[in-house]
Amino acid sequence: MGVEEMKNKENHDKHLASLPDITDEDWKARCVKRFQDRGGVTKEVAIDMAEACFEQRVDWDREGDPEGTADVEMSYWSE
Question: How far apart are CA 74 and CA 79, in angstroms?
Fold first, then answer.
């Protein structure tokens, strides 16, 4: 599904519904890994950040995408 299709709420909701269910712990682990791999932070920092992202994931509409959530968070970082 392309970017234009994802702008439509109905298509976006269908996409989220098509994603496989993952456990809360798997979601957090994938988010931690993304922060470590792309952000270069320590595991302890990555865990704290993943926990914060997990708590806000519904507000950000990224329930099935821990990597995307981490990417959004890191997009606000400055060097």
Answer: 11
Distance in angstroms between the alpha carbons of the first and the last residue of the chain: 33
Query: Could you give the CA distance from residue 79 to residue 40 in angstroms, rounded to a whole number?
Result: 12
- Give the tens place of pLDDT for each residue, 5-60: 556 667 666 766 676 778 889 999 999 999 999 999 999 999 999 999 998 876 55
Residue with tokens 């997009």: 75
Strand segments (E) across 1-79: none
- The pLDDT assigned to 48 comes to 97
